[in-house]
Design brief:
The chain has strands spanning 8-15, 24-32, 42-47, 54-59, 64-71. With 79 residues, the chain is mainly beta. Strand 3 and strand 4 form a beta hairpin.
Length: 79
C-alpha cells in the first residue's frame, strides 16, 4: 500500500462514438488507487463539457467504473 496517493483514471470511453445529439451516451472506464485499503467509496465528478454542469457518480472499488449515462443536447460540443 502507498499512503496518500490520489486515484488515477487509466482508461475511459464514451459510447456511442460519435455521440448522437438527444440520445443517451455512456461513459465507462477503469481507474487505480495504489493507496487503497479496499474499503473506500469513490466519487467521480464529471463535467460533460456541454453546459449541463457536473454530475457525480460513485464507484466502490477499482478497477471499473460506469456506465454513467448522459444525454448531450449538442454533439458538436463533445471532444
Amino acid at each position: 500500500m502507498v499512503p496518500n496517493v490520489a486515484p488515477v483514471i487509466t482508461s475511459a470511453s464514451l459510447t456511442p462514438n460519435p455521440v448522437v445529439s438527444g440520445n443517451p451516451s455512456a461513459l465507462n472506464g477503469t481507474f487505480s488507487d495504489p493507496g487503497s485499503l479496499g474499503t473506500e467509496t469513490y466519487t467521480l465528478s464529471i463535467d460533460w463539457g456541454d453546459g449541463a454542469g457536473f454530475s457525480e457518480f460513485y464507484a466502490v472499488m477499482p478497477p471499473n467504473f460506469g456506465p454513467f449515462n448522459h444525454i448531450f443536447t449538442d454533439a458538436a460540443t463533445v471532444n
